[in-house]
Amino acid sequence: MKLLEQMVVNDGKVYSNNVLKVDSFINHQIDPKLMLEMAKTFYEQFKNDNITKILTIEASGIAPAILVANLFNVPMVFAKKSVPSTLTRDSFYEAQVYSYTKNVTNNIIVSKDFLNKEDKVLIIDDFLANGQAVLGLSDLIDKAGASLAGVGILIEKSFQDGRKILEEKNIRVCSLCRIASLEDGKVKFNKADDEL
Ligand code: G4P
């Protein structure tokens, strides 16, 4: 998606060879017009897939996911990283997500009330790095007996393993911006999935 690539170039900051800072438009301050354009692009990609639910993980996935859900006219559910006091032990599905970027493991949960075997789920998230968040969400979907239609990603770091790991599991990935490299402070792109 050209608009997103332009914003990555103009407003993103290469923080290191592995990490891109996008907090002025994606994951701290949020650009609503950009988010809506991205949501429309995901809608075009998945509109024939009978999506019944959008699933993401707190916190940064929530903003794009809610806009996508609005276009599909289905609920958005986000996996929580802590168990709310209102949920009893047997009332939620649980999975583990290890973050290589942050070197922590989070237990993520979704209430059994909000995912079920009739659901056809589209996962939305801001970054795809090592694919662990998507695998954790996919585990929740499996535990609910639901099916996974695909994954919509705002920014994929193609030089990390996430994409490969998901494709090996036959998971369809649509990334609006695919970063080939962040070496020497410069962003290099691969062709995004919506442009193929
Ligand atoms: P993975 O799920 O693909 O394996 O990714 P990884 O564990 O490496 O990433 C974990 C967290 O780090 C995610 O946020 C993700 O959005 C963030 N992240 C990964 N790469 C980058 C990057 O290059 N730049 C920035 N700004 N963030 C990155 P999270 O733990 O879910 O936190 P939240 O922000 O959603 O609360």
Automatic annotation (TrEMBL):
Annotated metabolic or biological route of this protein: Purine metabolism; XMP biosynthesis via salvage pathway; XMP from xanthine: step 1/1
A Gene Ontology molecular function term of the record: xanthine phosphoribosyltransferase activity
Binding residues for 5-phospho-alpha-D-ribose 1-diphosphate: A129, N130, G131, Q132, A133
Swiss-Prot/TrEMBL catalytic activity: XMP + diphosphate = xanthine + 5-phospho-alpha-D-ribose 1-diphosphate
Subcellular localization(s) per the UniProt record: Cytoplasm
Record keywords, A-Z: Cytoplasm, Glycosyltransferase, Purine salvage, Transferase
EC number of the protein: 2.4.2.22
InterPro entries: PRTase-like, PRTase_dom, Pur/Pyrimidine_PRTase, Xanthine_PRibTrfase
Positions of xanthine binding: L20, N27, K157
Taxonomic superkingdom: Bacteria
The keyword Transferase appears for this protein: yes
Occurrences of domain Phosphoribosyltransferase (ranges): 37-158
Keyword presence, Amino-acid biosynthesis: no
SUPFAM superfamilies: PRTase-like (SSF53271)
Main location: cytoplasm
Protein purpose: Converts the preformed base xanthine, a product of nucleic acid breakdown, to xanthosine 5'-monophosphate (XMP), so it can be reused for RNA or DNA synthesis.
Subunit structure: Homodimer.
Family: Belongs to the purine/pyrimidine phosphoribosyltransferase family. Xpt subfamily.
Name by which UniProt lists this protein: Xanthine phosphoribosyltransferase
